[in-house]
Amino acid sequence: MNVGLMRRLGSDRVVPAFFVSTNKWRGTCHWIVLVFFAVSTSLVLVLKADQTVVAGVYTYSFLALMFLFGSGCIMLKLKRQDIPRDISAPWWYCGLGMTLVACGFLANLLGNPQTLMYFVSYLIMTLVVVFASLEQVFLLRVLVVLTNLVRKHPQNHDTPQSDDNVEVPPDVAAKQRPSSTPLENENANVSGLVSAIKAIQSAPVVFFVKDADLTTLNKAILYVRANELTHNLRFIHVYPAATVDALEVVDQLKDMIAMFDRVYPKIQLDFYSLVGKFEPATVEWVAQTYKIPTNMMLIKQPTNSQVKAVSTHGVRVITG
Fold first, then answer.
1. How far apart are CA 97 and CA 229, in angstroms?
2. Domain boundaries, the chain
3. Is the dihedral of CA 239, 240, 245, 246 positive or negative?
4. Which of 3, 53, 97, 308 is 20 to 30 A from 207 in CA distance terms?
């Protein structure tokens, strides 16, 4: 079991966040250890301590992990070929490794086909947990709807009205429209669920932007909308000195982000500019100052060793 991997998955919201919580006495992630112990114990009990079948299930798990390593290496070659790297594995290394892993998987299947059923059962349970973590906002909204259906609550249908003689701008009018259906309205019955949804969606995500490029900014916004639970994206531009060219880039970024803020009204876009050197120390300062973990910070694909050092500090690479 890789505790570090589970901590990263928990902080990235791929698995429930309670995995990240630490024991105040020892400072360890006790929930990861306890859950692994519970899953391992349940596997032994279900299989009635049959060592052959238990070993087969662990073999499937190990081979599946090795296959994912190979496929991940290929994905990096296809999507992130410009990232500086110290070691580069040839294509045939990856292909040969994945082929041998597939042969091992097939050999294990021919040896005891019944073992695969237990492996798939635990895999499905794991995928359900991952899905619930990735779609927690959707599931909370479903609970809000079900609660409002079961426990009827008088709805307040009053919406903001404007004077007939006052022309309301389109973007203001869009924000005045109800953002949810009547069954999703906030009331005393669902206040806790609604508060949880708002807390998730208000957590900020940072994207470090270097140049005033509309395509890059739009890619970052689309990525956050498609893959993150938050509706709060902060663009941070770091420049070494307040020269004329640097200030011109800052002004361009301000205008572009203000424009995107009107184009995407459902996501809050903010812009910050910092004078300094773009390095891991700057990332750590941003994390401590704005209380944002580094794994919630995004960056464009690095093309030099200096930016690569920032990406290895926990910042995620999202665009090419």
1. 36
2. 1-49, 51-149+191-202, 204-318
3. positive
4. 3
